[in-house]
What we know:
Layout: H1 7-34, H2 39-66, H3 77-98, H4 100-105, H5 114-132, H6 135-141, H7 143-150, H8 152-167, H9 169-178, H10 186-214
Helix pairs in contact: 1-2, 1-3, 2-3, 2-10, 3-5, 5-8, 6-7, 8-10
Amino acid sequence: MPTEPTPLQRMWHTAFKLGGVVLVLSLLYSVAYFGEASVLSLSRAIGAAAAFMIGISYAMSGVGYYFDFLDDKVAYRKYFGLVGLLLALIYTYTLFFVDPGTYFFNFFYNLGTPDFVLGILAMGILLGMVIISTPEGIKAIGTQNWRLGLRTGYVSSALLVTRAAIVHSTEWHYWWAHGHWYLPPIMLIATVFTIGVILFRASIFFSKMIQRARTPKETPPLETSS
């Protein structure tokens, strides 16, 4: 008889299934946008799927905050994020084929450009989050520092949004000028989604501030002289 999958296996299976669905939908959209299946359309689809999976991972904490009945799903965010990181690494590899002149032959020459700097910093933060999220990493830095370290993920998202705006600005401007009836670029959709996730997370911060402001402070008892 087949054994029942462990909770860890279920979370990994769910994460890969969701990642597969997101990747397939992104690929279909990308092929429709470019009008053909190519290395470029595949690369863009993988990059967008990575952004969607990482964004979904970040959004899970907010979902758990606003919707109590989904608290048991928050544990999946780590695995959604790891699948997103895997897709991001694959996307980085595809850039060697999309534009070998920039990303392969002239790699060191372009190392100081915003494209490279922002991308490398963002990926470094994501990899750092993976390292500190291991049992050994949490034990080494402590739970409180680990939670603070995970918040750097939003910095990574902001860096990737900035990079996307720089790298894809020409394509986006062309679509805005000529393509109001046309499919928007998939990386533009992924970028808007990421910005929405960042704002969603920021709403939790302001919600907690408002709650603290509305909570009456306890007044210390008056001292009575004997």
